[in-house]
Amino acid sequence: MNFVRAVSLSTGIITTVLGGGVNTPTNGATATNVTVGTLASVAVDEANRILYAAESTKFRIWRVDLATNKIYLHAGSVQGYDDGPLNSTTFGYITYAKFFNGKLYVLDGKGIRELNATASKTFATMYGQYRSFDFYPEYNLGMLHL
User: 3-135: what fold?
Assistant: First the structure.
């Protein structure tokens, strides 16, 4: 099973926020009642209390509303490299995700993908194919080197 857990720095209490259940994730399900595939990365939009969880081998990104503990398919469905609206974007093996300056960035087999969440709600490839963040030091996204 795969889990995402949060640790309260003030109390030390550990809480499961995603995974641990047996149900297949569906839109609006309770996030702690579902089981998710191999999670490559998680990213957090702290301002809106949203957790993004990237399933590497199922080519999907789940969105968990931390205020309601509900899960929703955010993007992806099958393996591919299609940019576009969230409901038709496809990913290769996702290896990293980061929420930075109001945007969600994803690294998959195509390259660095950026979610334009405020305007068109589409994913677009920012930089080349098969390249890691190491190749773009001028765009310090605060990400770990892969």
Answer: Thrombin, subunit H (2.40.10)
